[in-house]
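Following up on my earlier message about zinc ion. Here are the inputs again, as you asked, copied directly from the submission form:
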Amino acid sequence: MSEFKRVSNVLLQSNGIYFIECPGCKTLHPIHVGEQHRIRWDFNGNVNAPTFTPSLMVNQGHPSQCHSFITNGKIQFLSDCHHGLAGHTVDLLPVEEF
Ligand SMILES: [Zn+2]
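Thanks, got it. Here's what our run produced:
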């Protein structure tokens, strides 16, 4: 049994929460979509080329801070990311079921 369900090449889902594999952090980032979540993102519904708004801020204020826009299956890293892809826009990484 897998806790994570692969819903497309680039998206996992677990307990109603989407996850992307971040090319900058090389870890999964959760994205909460749906009215049951107090803090949530809008999703264009395209699991193959997802757009989530507004921006995704991960580990704010920590050494691993990561700040991005995910648009049409690409992830644009803002300049306040602390990893090497700050300021770059790249394709989302393929995800693996596990
Ligand atoms: Zn990241």
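One observation from looking it over: The radius of gyration is 13 Å. Hope that helps, and feel free to reply on this thread.
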